[in-house]
């Protein structure tokens, strides 16, 4: 194991030189300073892992030096040296930010044991910081892939809201990646070292959901043979993600509202009030405003959840991300299944881009995994795609545009389908649509 870089500070030159010589002989990179000012000057040009300082220094005293050291961004451990009669001062120093203290005369073996202990702790802190950064990087990118303006806006929102403790409501169709957004928010927040607990509320009965959220005491109901923590207790200090929150009964909504307002609840069958500190992220594919107006969702809970809203667009509204996502998933699964695939045949990619994707990104991922598993060549061909994705003659002869599609998206759909029917001939497609072939060329270039 590498040795820590040591800075020794003592106004007694003889004692300082002797200690520097001993530590250097034992393999420590070590420097010495005769005053606090000289030490700060050294620190402005070099980095040290551990500072060992006498408490009595000329000019700037030991306590003042500790205050200055703790202002620095670089993490370093501090050991103070004091006389037997000044142990009270050493305790003061620890309160100010020192990590340990030794009494004079300094026992070198004892000093090296302290240095070893502090260095192990420093490395653990460093490794923990690295792990946090890796987690942040992982969930910053994760499988939230997109270059369209809609997705870039979502990435910016995640970055802006993650540091706060505000409740967040994620809206979007099934398969759009709501849980991925929740993960990204948690792992970019100050709570990233604490638990992220998820609960999918759909298909759970009222009693089961209540027990899952708040826990239960032994004997609370038939089968409750022992007490059990709920998700709120598990997520204490961290984040709780509730998917499909719109499926909750009104009774459970009342208890959830109380936790959001007061941070307290009782387990099912229990009398003791428990307090928790939990950030809530909720998601739904329902229109909660309509649910409120129709009496199926509490208005006060809706406003508590809806502090910040993240709208995830369906995949059909960000078609330009389909090639990017398709390649992302292919790369993911060729690693998993140890395949050698270079990409897509043009007609396969065209079919992927024309499909409506009712199951959104989740459906696309499943299709890509299937294609990789079945692929025996270097390119993914159109015959590896499910039949419902591959356009047939009936599909080509009729263009279906869902209500709510923007004019820009409708234009793109019409031109692409017409090009498909004209077997890629821009001249023929332009003739059918009554526009110039130059306009089609311009549009195709714009989309690519």
TrEMBL record:
Tell me one GO molecular function of this protein: ATP binding
Q: Where is the Response regulatory domain?
A: 5-119
Say which domain of life the source belongs to: Bacteria
The residue ranges of the Sigma-54 factor interaction domain are 144-373
Q: Which InterPro entries does the entry mention?
A: AAA+_ATPase, AAA_lid_NorR, CheY-like_superfamily, Homeodomain-like_sf, HTH_Fis, P-loop_NTPase, Sig_transdc_resp-reg_receiver, Sigma_54_int
Q: Which PROSITE patterns match?
A: RESPONSE_REGULATORY, SIGMA54_INTERACT_1, SIGMA54_INTERACT_2, SIGMA54_INTERACT_3, SIGMA54_INTERACT_4
Keywords assigned by UniProt? Activator, ATP-binding, DNA-binding, Nucleotide-binding, Phosphoprotein, Transcription, Transcription regulation
Phylogenetic placement of the source organism: Bacteria, Pseudomonadati, Planctomycetota, Candidatus Brocadiia, Candidatus Brocadiales
Name a biological process GO annotation. Answer: regulation of DNA-templated transcription
Give residues where 4-aspartylphosphate occurs: 54
The protein depicted here goes by the name Two-component response regulator
């Amino acid at each position: 194991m590498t040795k820590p870089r040591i800075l020794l500070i003592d106004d007694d030159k003889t004692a300082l030189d002797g200690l520097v010589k001993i530590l250097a002989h034992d393999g420590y990179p070590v420097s010495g300073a005769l005053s606090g000012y000289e030490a700060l000057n050294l620190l402005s040009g070099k980095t040290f892992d551990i500072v060992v300082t006498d408490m009595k220094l000329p000019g700037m005293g030991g306590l003042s030096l500790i205050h200055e050291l703790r202002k620095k961004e670089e993490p370093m451990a501090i050991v103070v040296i004091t006389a037997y009669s000044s142990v009270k001062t050493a305790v003061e120093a620890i309160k100010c930010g020192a990590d340990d203290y030794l009494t004079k005369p300094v026992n070198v073996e004892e000093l090296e044991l302290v240095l070893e202990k502090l260095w192990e702790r420093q490395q653990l802190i460093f490794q923990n910081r690295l792990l946090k950064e890796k987690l942040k990087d992982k969930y910053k990118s994760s499988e939230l892939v997109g270059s369209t303006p809609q997705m870039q806006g979502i990435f910016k929102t995640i970055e802006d809201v993650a540091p706060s403790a505000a409740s967040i409501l994620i809206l979007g169709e099934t398969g759009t990646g709501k849980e991925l957004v929740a993960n990204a928010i948690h792992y970019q927040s100050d709570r990233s070292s604490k638990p992220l607990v998820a609960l999918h509320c759909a298909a759970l009965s009222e009693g089961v959901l209540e027990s899952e959220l708040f826990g239960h005491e032994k004997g609370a109901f038939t089968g409750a043979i022992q007490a059990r923590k709920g998700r709120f207790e598990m997520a204490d200090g961290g984040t709780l993600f509730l998917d499909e929150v719109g499926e909750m009964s009104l009774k459970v909504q009342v208890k959830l509202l109380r936790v959001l307002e007061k941070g307290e609840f009782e387990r099912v069958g229990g009398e003791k009030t428990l307090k928790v500190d939990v950030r809530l992220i909720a998601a739904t594919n329902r229109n909660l405003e309509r649910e409120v107006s129709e009496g199926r969702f509490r208005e006060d809970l809706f406003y508590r959840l809806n502090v910040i809203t993240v709208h995830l667009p369906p995949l059909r509204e960000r078609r330009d991300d389909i090639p990017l996502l398709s390649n992302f998933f292919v790369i993911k699964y060729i690693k998993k299944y140890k395949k050698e695939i270079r990409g897509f045949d043009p007609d396969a990619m065209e079919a992927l881009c024309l499909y409506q994707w009712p199951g959104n990104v989740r459906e696309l991922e499943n299709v890509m995994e299937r294609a990789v598993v079945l692929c025996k060549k270097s390119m993914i061909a159109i015959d590896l795609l499910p039949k419902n994705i591959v356009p047939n003659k009936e599909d080509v002869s009729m263009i279906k545009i869902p209500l709510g599609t923007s004019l820009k998206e409708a234009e793109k759909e019409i031109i692409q389908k017409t090009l498909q029917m004209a077997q890629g001939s821009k001249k023929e497609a332009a003739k059918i649509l009554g526009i110039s072939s130059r306009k089609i060329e311009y549009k195709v270039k714009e989309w690519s």
